[in-house]
Amino acid sequence: MTTTTDDPITTAAARYKRDEAKAKQSRTALTDLVLAALREPDAKPAEIARRADWTPAYVRKLARDNGIEADAAYKARTEKARARLIAEATTEN
Given CB 3.0 to 4.6 Å as the disulfide criterion, which of 21, 33, 56, 60 pairs with 49? Predict the structure, then answer.
C-alpha cells in the first residue's frame, strides 16, 4: 500500500524502512557467504574478512558463534602469544 504525501519526514521514514530491509537482506546474504567460505578446508579468515570488508575479529566471532573451529596453526599462534603476554605480565610485577 503506497500513500502519496508531500510530507518529507513521512517520505524519508518510508525510504528508511525500505532501505533497512534491503540492508538486512544484504547482510544476511553476505554472512551466509562468509560462513560458507570459512567452512572450506583451505579457508583464510583474514582474507575472507578483507573481502567482506569486516574486521578479522568480527569474522572470528561469526565463526565461533556458528561452531566453526579455528585451524591448528591459528590456535598455536594465539596460545604462544597468550603465554608470552602472561609471562611478561608476571615478570613486570
Answer: 56
